[in-house]
Amino acid sequence: MSPSRNRTGQRLVIMGAGGFAREIADVVRDLGHSGGVELLGFVDRDDSHAGQILNDTPILGTIMQVDRSQPVHGIAGAGEIAPRKRQVAEMQQHGIEPLTLIHPSVVMSPFVTVGVGTVITAGTILTNNIVVGDHVILNLGVTVGHDVTIGTHCVLSPGVHISGWCTIEDDCYFGTGSVVLPRVTVGRGATVGAGAVVTKNVEPGVTVVGIPARPLSTSRS
């Protein structure tokens, strides 16, 4: 999608009701009526929670209990890659289209492309000529430099800084406060530990930690 912020007139459910799901609800609240998104509630795989109120937002029960007499959009509420993928697959299975959410405080060039189902939270800055894939999390205070590509299902935790000309492949996880220096490629499925400073390419599936970042172990896969 174009960086025209959030689409208007959308009814939204959040998959899950954990910590990051509640933060997504905060993004919707901060958008207010002008954001054009109506939050219906949280979807929980445990239907025993249906009808409960969480942070002024109802838990609707399972996805099968959602009223779809009118079109409904969804967004993955998990903060980790594997459960996010499961939530996206569940939405696809039930024909629920993903919605992109961008907090009103985000600073973003018009020359940025943001994929569907992505969440960009408060204080994030994206400069120009950036491509952000589908179902990505850019958490609080992330900065992304020029000419960066971020693949699908990546998670950038609070305070991550990606320098210019970097390529972040699919399914990468970045811990809080990690930094990637210019012209680095982080391979698919890699993990960058909290506070790490990445100075050279990271192979797919590798976990790197420290300053400078060095391999710790092989992939989650």
Main beta-sheet strand count, sense and barrel state: 8 strands, mixed
Percentage of residues in DSSP E strands: 25-35%
CATH class of the largest domain: Mainly Beta
> How many whole angstroms does the radius of gyration measure?
17 Å
Structural class: mainly beta
CATH topology heading of the largest domain? UDP N-Acetylglucosamine Acyltransferase, domain 1
Low-pLDDT regions = none
Query: What distance lies between the first and last C-alpha atoms, to the nearest angstrom?
Result: 30 Å
Helix content: 10-25%
The secondary-structure element order is: EHEEEEHEEEEEEEEEEEEEEEEEEEE
In what order do the strands lie side by side in the largest sheet?
7-10-13-16-19-22-24-25
Strand tally: 25
Shape, principal axes of CA atoms: globular
Total count of domains? 2
Q: Can you count the helices?
A: 2
How do the strands and helices of this protein lay out in sequence?
Blueprint: E1 10-15, H1 19-31, E2 37-43, E3 53-54, E4 57-61, E5 73-76, H2 81-93, E6 97-98, E7 101-102, E8 107-108, E9 112-114, E10 119-120, E11 125-126, E12 130-132, E13 137-138, E14 143-144, E15 149-150, E16 155-156, E17 161-162, E18 167-168, E19 173-174, E20 179-180, E21 185-186, E22 191-192, E23 197-198, E24 207-209, E25 214-217
Parallel strand pairs: 1-2, 1-5, 2-4, 5-6, 7-10, 8-11, 9-12, 10-13, 11-14, 12-15, 13-16, 14-17, 15-18, 16-19, 17-20, 18-21, 19-22, 20-23, 22-24
Antiparallel strand pairs: 3-4, 24-25
